[in-house]
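Rotation project, supervised by the postdoc (A.L.). Task for the rotation student: set up a whole-complex structure prediction and record inputs and outputs verbatim in this book. Inputs entered:
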Amino acid sequence: MSTTRIGVFDSGVGGLTVLRELIRHVPNSEYLYFGDTARLPYGSKSVETIARYAVGASRFLQDRGVELLVVACNTATALALDCIVQSLEIPVIGVVEPGAEHAANASKSRSVIVIGTEATVLSHAYQRALASRGVTTREKACPLLVPLVEEGWTEHYVTEQVARIYLGEVFAEEIRSRSHSDVLVLGCTHYPLLKPLLKRIVPNDVAIVDSAESTAQVVAQKLGLAPEPHADATADVYCFVTDSVEKFRRLGPRFLGHPLNGVEHINLGG
Amino acid sequence: MSTTRIGVFDSGVGGLTVLRELIRHVPNSEYLYFGDTARLPYGSKSVETIARYAVGASRFLQDRGVELLVVACNTATALALDCIVQSLEIPVIGVVEPGAEHAANASKSRSVIVIGTEATVLSHAYQRALASRGVTTREKACPLLVPLVEEGWTEHYVTEQVARIYLGEVFAEEIRSRSHSDVLVLGCTHYPLLKPLLKRIVPNDVAIVDSAESTAQVVAQKLGLAPEPHADATADVYCFVTDSVEKFRRLGPRFLGHPLNGVEHINLGG
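Outputs recorded:
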């Protein structure tokens, strides 16, 4: 079996949660990860700016010989997937469609909640993807969760309060509109690190769907593999970052789950 | 009296708190404000990246005919002021020296606390500026305060808790080391919006120094004006931003204190 070279593009370190799931589902591959850390966060920027950044980074990975590109950034997928697909000659998989498909399959009430960055929510990309599957969507921007995760406060009482405020607003709207969502989609790569905390504060009958895992399953199936994760899976990983290598090496392991070795700084002229 | 054209450079909207003070202290001027919103935040990025961005933006303002440049961004001042000065032919004033001078004059105990972004604190720019004035400095990075201000939570109990955690750590160190700082320097352009909240939680005998106001006083003196603010001062303001004009117009007034009219999008190729 020949090794597949897979590109993973993200605005920063968050996409390493997607890479982590990819390694578990598609091990023995070679991964080139691009983290556009000099220009993050994408979540609060405009569609034109995000599309320009995302296309540049994706072309860089294509030029390095990747056979398949995973757009790990929810915001870049939501706002720029079409631009990226049109700019490349290789297959491109974003995180929104797999997450939406997984959520649609998991929802009995045909109603789900999606949390993400401001830009992801304003794009309504998840809402459209779920509407085409007959599911109604309530979207909620949670801009403070990314900085809280990056501060390392994944089990901090302040983070729990902030999450309770954001989700409390969502569930209050649910009560007012007499709807009942039974799935919460984590529509941002940083949120899987908050899964234990979020599990405690959502109602018991609400399932949590992680777009990172859903995306890895889709990539596995596309490559003819079973969608089940492998225990102790490993892979060759090489990272390109547009800002500090040292900072990426320091923050990255929290998201990837193990240390990072090959990290190279590159300048896309931004 | 001829009108002076003054450039103000910041990574985003925060520098509008400096522009607000400039207008109060140097009214009847023409201000060109550059907000590098497509590449913010600078506070978590490396020195090389920040210097590259800051020099590009400063040259842009010089090309537009400004006679004096104010680097309103604490992080850009801390990390890139020398690069900016060397790249321009006009006088350049950053926010660190004026803030440090004001703090040194205000401190009887010769010991001050500076709060700012991670990059500003790691640069120790305030520490050096204060050490040269015989003042010892305790620096504390407060990375969550900027996103909390941008969420609009300037009087929110979560923001108060976060500020209490950060400042509590600082004052606990003060007790352990038996030092007593009597000045708190707001070393980030977003923090003036938290001044009422911070006033409540610092000890009564700690004075708050706002680098924005100190910088405006220095500019006024440089132009031969009295360092006192003018009531109801106005000025012509024109803004250039690298990301969404609409978002800048929406967020900006909170920092500037009045509506923004002339805002133009420009692309520096980033």
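Student's summary: Chain B touches chain A at residues 37-39, 41, 44-46, 49, 143-144, 146-148, 150-151, 158, 161-162, 165, 242-244, 247, 269-270 (CB under 8 Å).
Supervisor addendum: The beta strands of chain B are 5-10, 30-35, 68-71, 92-94, 111-116, 136-141, 183-186, 207-210, 236-241, 262-265.
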